[in-house]
Amino acid sequence: MKEHRKTGHNVLHLLYPIRKKNESNCKNKGSLEGLLTRLQFERFGCSADNPSKENKNNIFSVYPSTFKKNEVFVQDSHSYWISEKQVAEYFHPTVQGSLFRSGNLKKYRKIEGEIFIADLKNPDHQEDNTKNQHTIAFQWLATEIYVFNEDYAFLVVRLSLLENVSVDKNDIESSLRQPYPQPVQSLNIWMKFANRVRQNYKKYATQPKLQITHAFNEEKQEVMKVEESSFFNYLEKHYKDLFAKYAISNVDLNGQGELELPQRIEPNAFLYAFVQTDSTEPLTNNELNQLIHIDDYDGESGSTPEFIDEFVNRHLYKRWISYGTYTTAIDYGSITISQNRSFVYSFRKSDLYKQSFPNLLIQHYGSTSSFWTQKD
User: Fold this and answer.
1) Rounded CA gap, 167 and 173, in Å?
2) Per-residue pLDDT tens digits for 165-196
3) Structural domain contains residue 314
4) pTM for the complete prediction?
5) Which of 94, 188, 192, 359 is the right S-S partner for 1, CB 3.0 to 4.6 Å?
């Protein structure tokens, strides 16, 4: 990505297939529904015929805490949240069934809210880190479980890079409490974050890893130093009771419990993401190729210009390019990138705000991850 492109509001969904372990190897033999209740998950979701009455609470699952929740949606001086019924009615009736009428599918959600401080660095090549290390903040917005039956489900983790936060390791709390009124993280950094959070193993010697170093609990207003780890390792420890009963199916195919090293590897998540950029300059084919591959730099999947042109044509949805919106699709991920021409935020402790982007689009990204779980 060109250096001048900045990251705007963004939402990343990490999709993991999970399946029940053999009962003989499972310490927790109760029902999944009972387990999710103990873990403080709540049923959610509705159809166009049965709109939810708790729509306003959903805002916490798609917006990070650096936004003023009561000012994100503004129309005629009134804040509002588009009802799920209105979101459903936006789509053609032929696809409403796939998106909103889920049949036997049960959906559970837990609002998370924890903020992480992480380094993008190469632990094996310290000489590369002086120049190439980046420290970022990202928020764990929500976790969702889409249950098909007692044996199979999808785990969906929703994250957002705090693009308006520049982290000072010597004063992390102040960095988080005083976000900038404009993006400070480049689109390059977002691409590195997206690549490393969905797969954290190295494909080449100098490739950085995403290593969490601190966690910020907003409710307690305290920063805690944590043992350096990938986000997936943190997720496993946080939901150890869930992973005691269910295995990530593309890691533990036989359902025999934990695998021993070197077999035990971090799984690749399917990434379903939305990101904005303030740049109105059209994306080049090299940049689009990077987006499609979800690469951490634009030369990782490089090839001849002819190959890239053909590849981009096959994996890019072009209908809304004239509006600055591109949607990519490949077997392990899909990204929509939109150019936002009114790039102003609503911040806590600030009177400066504007309606920053189309409400429906981001709510759609929050409500249709179930569509991808069903399609997969």
Assistant:
1) 9
2) 999 988 998 888 888 878 899 999 999 999 99
3) no
4) 0.83
5) 188
